[in-house]
């Protein structure tokens, strides 16, 4: 099988919709010469992959095409926003991240403050019925502390050099890191290229990435932790896992498998490293106001807050709403019952398979399956969550194939 040629066609198919749907330079009208360069790269990649075994030229075509399509679109979106309105073409989590950073600079607790009077308030929000409603994000900063702290490394240089900061700068850098990690990870480089293409340009995720959904923030830390774990860099993996846990609650479901994997490998000291990273990042905010921190990062998502995240998305919650078992999308419902009903058996079976194989691909796939079951039976299973799951299933499946090769 000529996987190189398949990769060339996949790149062609995924890159073209990007440049046709979005602008790829922050000027009025994308210049036709840039379209020409991209078309030449895409066609040249197909020709080289079919008629030559020399791969260096093909790799140049691939990575340059990704930079033009995804990189150009992301940069254009950020520049356009800086020139017009703060809520233009961006998700409200980016608006809230930036507002939370300003609160920290002002000495205010971002987990305690509300976000009325910030750009978050200008973001149009509608519930799952399509009716306009008060955005619940105005009451809580849901993200763990690393999502708040890391962007400061970009904030000060960006505002000094460019005159503006956009939270998606972190996402762009994270995607570059993710691509590099995937390139180094796979023994079969063509399989690695296919994984990179699907990760960077997948229709299931790319729109959400461009608008700044937080799933893209956690990805490099998660991939880095798994890559280091596969290479037996136990302490590096432990540190990156700590950052991953403090990036988004998405990775909390991975923690039992991560702990179990290291425990079965008789590598227990790295677990203290992970715990130390989590404590170092979370304790300052926990001690600042424990109630506000817990309510925003845990209770808000589970429906146990007076201003909780509503039932939404495409999961069991909306099925129960359609059937009439849930009357109010904003009211509490015991989703924990359904979550425990499906995730506990998944954990048991997942650990059995992981113990039998002790492969990183098994770790990734049982995590993906358990996360799906947990998410689907939660209050919310949104479009970007399905996209994130596609990332993880792709990574696990490709690693499984690479391990077998």
UniProtKB/TrEMBL annotation:
The keyword Zinc does not apply. The chain crosses the membrane at residues 6-25, 32-51, 57-75, 137-156, 168-186, 191-210, 234-259, 271-294, 331-353, 360-378. Keywords: Membrane, Transmembrane, Transmembrane helix. This is DUF2029 domain-containing protein. It comes from Candidatus Curtissbacteria bacterium GW2011_GWA1_41_11.
